[in-house]
Design goal:
GO terms for molecular function: glycerate kinase activity. This is Glycerate kinase. It contains 13 helices and 9 strands. Helix 9 packs across helix 10. The chain is globular. The strands form 4 sheets. Strands 3-4-5 form a 3-stranded parallel β-sheet. The protein is of the alpha/beta class.
Length: about 350
């Protein structure tokens, strides 16, 4: 028996495994029901049980089980505030872990004393296992005190629900049970294995570029920062290559990976990849011989049905000719309007 949780629209019929569809990137009631189903099956586990987990990016939103005193609406409001403020995925998942009954090693706690094997696909820079999908089977290295610091750092005190502020405040003062930490003997029967990450995706892209006749040049696999600023840097390097052949001679394929952040300024639709491409397109406007592509390895960019976008030096002009304003779209975080 088993349960798989996927975003809405991605279910398939299986004989013994039940597939649950749930909300992503904002959790929904379907995710709560899926989380309850997972906990219910784990309740029957004993020391003779083998539990196999596959954890990937997106798991934080899909596997949902609010902690005592916190509602789904509280989680949704908190998630939206964190996504909008420019917090990193590690910071976002720090709060998620302390508002959940399954994240931050607590899924392993629910399965104990069973033997657990977890295969992990990383979408987090540096591959910290406790941050990927909020580390449901991994010892948690963060604390309630870290949550309080993040709230102060981004000025979220008046944006998060009162029940969330109360729980995290109680935890920071020692009034709540912490998530299981490194050294807890419970994890002696848990094995976590990283099976793929950003580096493996970048290496694969480089091999494909070489096979197509380009000179692949990997800039970095740990790119972070504000998306539109990172896009400007990449566009500048591409223009330098066209002008001087530095740091590599054309035909060259620049490749990088990581996880940038978008600080929401408007109310449009898009994602970090589409915003990256739009910002880069404005920087290479009118340039010949430069094409920019950015995609999410999970096939989902933001709240859209696109994996990302592709543009060249004529994209901005074509958009304007079609009656669109790419500059306004960027300011409104409405990159999807340019590419659809």
């Amino acid at each position: 028996d088993g349960h798989v949780i996927v975003p809405h629209g991605q279910a398939a019929a299986l004989e013994r495994i039940q597939i649950h569809e749930a909300g992503h990137p904002v959790p929904d009631e379907a995710g709560v029901q899926a989380g309850r189903a997972v906990l219910k099956v784990l309740a029957d586990a004993d020391e003779k049980t083998l539990v196999i987990c596959l954890i990937s990016g997106g798991g934080s939103a899909l596997l949902v089980c609010p902690s005592d005193g916190v509602t789904l609406e509280d989680l949704q409001t908190t998630n939206q505030a964190l996504l909008a403020c420019g917090a990193t995925i590690v910071e976002i998942n720090t709060l998620r872990k302390h508002l959940s009954a399954v994240k931050g090693g607590q899924l392993a706690r629910a399965a104990a004393p069973a033997r657990m094997l977890t295969l992990i696909l990383s979408d987090v820079v540096g591959d910290p296992l406790d941050a990927i999908a909020s580390g449901p089977t991994v010892p948690d290295t963060t604390s309630f005190e870290d949550c309080a610091a993040i709230i102060d750092r981004y000025g979220l005190g008046n944006l998060l629900p009162p029940r969330v502020i109360m729980r995290l405040g109680d935890g920071a003062s020692g009034g709540r049970i912490e998530t299981p930490k490194p050294g807890d003997p419970m994890f002696d029967r848990v094995t976590n294995i990283l099976v793929a990450n950003n580096d493996s995706a970048v290496r694969a892209a480089a091999r494909e570029a070489d096979d197509l006749g380009y000179k692949s040049f990997v800039l970095s696999t740990v790119i972070e920062g504000e998306t539109r600023d990172v896009a400007k840097v990449h566009a500048a390097i591409a223009r330098e290559i066209r002008a001087s052949g530095r740091p590599c001679e054309p035909p060259c394929c620049l490749i990088s990976g990581g996880e940038t952040t978008v600080t929401l300024r408007g109310s449009g639709r898009g994602g970090r990849n589409q915003e990256f491409v739009l910002a880069a397109a404005l920087e290479i406007d009118g340039a010949d011989g430069i094409t920019v592509c950015s995609v999410g390895t999970d096939g989902i960019d933001g709240t859209t049905d696109a994996a990302g976008a592709i543009a060249d030096g004529q994209t901005a002009a074509r958009s304007i000719a079609a009656g669109l304003d790419p500059y306004a779209s960027l300011e409104e975080n409405d990159s999807n309007a340019i590419f659809t």
